[in-house]
Design goal:
globular; single chain; TIM Barrel
Length: about 250
């Protein structure tokens, strides 16, 4: 029988060092976390990651994020993220094609709060997910827009997909551990984590709001400078522009 782990499926890589994120995750009882970067250069290299994981109780994995009008996905690959052509995958804007590209790499494209954009923007139109893939949707994220979150949950329920949890793209260091996912996999087995996600396993859990923090509706993500892939901006790119027209 596979073990069940508590894993944070999306911690922005720019929030802190491996040591800082590891301490925050361990304090919240997490078994594993996924550092997500907009560019592989944001992420620790393989040697640094291996050295950290050899000493840490919390196992750290890495993923890259792509985003566009009405979609956002964390790309999990059990191998070298540098081998993934992120710009080409992102430019397709089609989740079926995105997942097909990841299938060739034994990876997974995990939908991340597709209706929720930066600064409270809510996308009224989203890119449909391929019906052949039962992968869940990370809808429970810190500092989320309540309407966007509820629409993400409604979409996932209507599509028969699991609702997953993570810190998410708008979270801060103090948000690590507020939401997580209970997943049947080993903490140190990225291949097993990918397999569990692609087969539609996992359930989002809310681990609780710390008593010294304001309600999530009042939170706004800290604005931090970070590296981005060089590409032409498109409307609604990554959720920060104006929302699409209501469908």
């Amino acid at each position: 029988m596979k073990p069940n782990i508590l894993i944070d499926l999306y911690i922005p890589a720019h929030l802190g060092s491996l040591e800082e994120i590891g301490r925050a995750a361990e304090a919240q009882g997490l078994d594993a976390v996924v550092l997500v970067g907009e560019d592989p250069e944001e992420l620790p290299d393989a040697d640094e990651l291996a050295e950290f994981n050899a000493e840490s109780r919390v196992h750290v994995h890495t993923a890259a994020v792509i985003a566009g009008p009405g979609y956002r996905a964390a790309l999990f690959v059990d191998g070298r993220l540098e081998d993934v052509n992120l710009d080409a995958i992102e430019a397709s804007g089609d989740f079926a094609l995105i997942q097909a590209a990841l299938d060739e790499l034994d990876g997974c494209a995990l939908p991340i709060c597709p209706r929720q954009g930066a600064e409270g923007v809510v996308h009224r139109q989203v890119v449909p997910l391929p019906p052949r893939t039962p992968v869940g949707v990370v809808a429970l994220v810190a500092a989320s827009n309540r309407l966007g979150r509820d629409l993400d949950i409604e979409d996932a329920g209507a599509d028969g997909r699991r609702i997953l949890g993570a810190t998410g793209p708008f979270g801060r260091m103090e948000d690590v551990g507020l939401y997580a996912t209970l997943l049947p996999a080993a903490a140190d087995d990225l291949g097993g984590i990918i397999d569990a996600l692609t087969h539609g396993h996992g359930v989002g859990v809310e681990l609780g709001v710390r008593p010294d923090e304001p309600p999530r509706a009042q939170q706004r993500p800290d604005k931090k400078k970070r590296r981005r892939r060089s590409r032409k901006k498109r409307p609604n790119d990554g959720g920060g522009a104006e929302p699409s027209s209501a469908s």
